[in-house]
Design brief:
Strand content: 15-25%
Helix content: 25-40%
Oligomer: single chain
Order of helices and strands: EHEHEHEHEH
Amino acid sequence: MKTKILTVDDSRIVRIMVTRALAKYDCQIAEASNGEEGLKVAAQERPDLILLDVTMPVMDGMTMLDRLRSDAALRSTPVVMLTAESAQENIARADKLGISGYIAKPFKEDGLVAKLLPLVALKPKTT
């Protein structure tokens, strides 16, 4: 079974970069452009990991994270904040809500993979 990863970011470029970084691995990538959409996709897809931006329109990442932690079916899903947001209060709030990691934008593809490897089983694609 493929590892499912949901990336929630209002930047299409960031979502493409995540997909490209994980292209060598046997995983399924789902995408959402804001927290509201991300919650719907997460409920439908049941991802093994969520990459979540903080600053987004419609619903921000902190609100989405709070709602994920309130949902019995999704509360244990590992969430890695992938964001340019560096305000200490946001980092502290995310830590309190139980994030599994924090990756600052801009990021390098190999750095992203290195942060995700301890959290999910990323198996190289076989050809």
